[in-house]
Request: fold
Amino acid sequence: MKTVKLLLTWLALYAAQATAQTAALEVWMDKNVTVTADGKTVTYLTVSEKDPNVNYIAYNMTITLPKGFKVNQVKQGREYVNDITLSERATNTHQIDCNMPEEGMLKVICTSTSNYEMYPDDAEGNIIYPIFTVGLVADPSTINGTYDVEMTGVRFVRYLEDGNTLAAVDLDHIEYSEFTVTAGTDFPGIDYNLPSEGCGTMILPFDAPIPDGMTVYACNGISGNNSLMLEKAPSIEANTPYVVTGPEGIYHFTGKYRALKNSYSTPYMTGVFEQMKVPEGNYVMQNHKDTYGVGFYRVGAVETIINPYRCYVNALSNEVNAFRLVFDGADGIYSSKEENDELVNVYGTGGQMIRQRIKRSRALEGLAPGIYIIKDKKYIIK
Reply:
């Protein structure tokens, strides 16, 4: 264990040398894995490495697994140890170990006390790519579904051309493996409550169709007047944060579960699957009637908690206190200075007519806070 700790420290020292040496390194997992979540069936995952130019000395990586997974234990002498084994490329020259410091996070490290290079082949001289195999067990609480398991933080160690200097090589992308889990716990679905303002945020752990009456928007930018630019989405994609509008009420969603992590982010928004504290400097949706009405307001020093299946806007600016909403390029904030006095009809988000043949400049006067539609454009009023 002392050697493992020393190498972990050493690997961190060489981060600056890794960037220029990643071109030929390939590391991957089994692409499709089927798991029976009964608490006893062992599923084996193999990780492979290929580099035609280099034989590596050591490596470490992190594999993110669904909740409910653990490393299988096998008896070794009088003790039980982690079920992880090296391939023929390093059976007698290296040591491998793993642990799970937190649920869903599997850390793997392989070292050589004498800094031997791994072989590129088996004992017969045949080129092989697998480097290790780990046995996994999923307990019955694991949610049935399909997960994109991630492999990150991949670092390999090599000798430089002088044969003495050690340097690290980092994999420059995330590797994925599709895990299909059965025999576990079925996810019951989500009852999403859209408030009286007719506007909210939402993230789902599965793909789903958009229900009647609801409109779903993805944030794709920020305009010059500190408004979020929202583009209508054709369907709901798993693990994607959205702004949604529609009639007040409860909407039920079901689908094949795909959430590997507790939160997912785009460049503009973050959605969560459990109750969380929103970091200071980010923005949460609120209805401030004395300013912009419904919008995203900056979180200060006061603790702000966000509920599951909701989203917040990332800390995009240190100077902006609030972001307004722009739906498909139309300004989402109603202005009483509208000069066009044509007669228009006003509709609610459910399609019901609220007002008929009224001057546009007065169309929204006196209405309750919420979202209204005039000539296919949406307006938020205080």
